[in-house]
Amino acid sequence: MVAHSTQAQFEILTRLERKAPRLRPQMYTAQATAGRYRTLDPSRPGVVIVHRASTKGLQFDTVVVPDTETDAGTDPTSAELRMAYYVMSTRARHDLHLVYAGEREPGHLKHIPHGVLARG
Questions:
Q1: Which residue(s) pair with 48 in the sheet?
Q2: Where are the domains of the chain?
Q3: What pLDDT sits at residue 42?
Q4: Which residues, 6+ apart, have CB-to-CB distance to 104 below 8 Å?
Q5: How many Cα neighbours within 13 Å face the side chain of 31?
Q6: Rg (CA), the chain
Q7: At a CB cut-off of 8 Å and minimum separation 6, what does 98 contact?
Q8: From 3.80.10.10, 3.90.180.10, 3.40.50.300, 3.30.420.40, which CATH number describes the 2-110 domain?
Q9: What are phi and psi of 103, to 5 degrees?
Q10: For residue 88, how many other CB atoms are within 10 A of its CB?
Q11: Whole-angstrom Cα distance, residue 50 to residue 55?
């Protein structure tokens, strides 16, 4: 999972550890100086939770971006936003899931062709 903030990372980690410990979540944050949140074990199966800024150079079978609604107010033509989504999207070897909370799809996702992004 690729979260937009460290706070979101910890919220996701806490929920997964409580409700689905079999998923064996691990989390990386550059803000940690050592210990559990500073290193990832890529050989360990399970869910990995990283910050958007930490995804460059990593690859995963499946990437889930669970909070795309946080970018709803950003100009969809912004080079920074486009680069962030490019980097996050290209981390997925097989599957990419762009998820949002709320009733309406965020504007920056509306321009993705229906043949590319399954909606529903």
A1: 26
A2: 2-110
A3: 83
A4: none
A5: 9
A6: 15
A7: 65, 68, 109, 112, 117
A8: 3.40.50.300
A9: -85, -30
A10: 20
A11: 7
Q: What is the pLDDT of residue 101?
A: 93
Dihedral of CA 25/23/15/106: which sign? positive
91: three-class secondary structure by DSSP = coil
How close are the terminal C-alpha atoms of the chain, in Å? 20
pLDDT, averaged in runs of 10, over the chain (120 residues):
96 97 95 90 92 93 96 92 95 95 91 84
Task: At 20, list the tokens.
Answer: 């689905």
CB-based burial label for 71 (10 Å; 0-12, 13-18, 19+): buried
User: What is the C-alpha to C-alpha distance for residues 21 and 93, in angstroms, rounded to an integer?
Assistant: 24
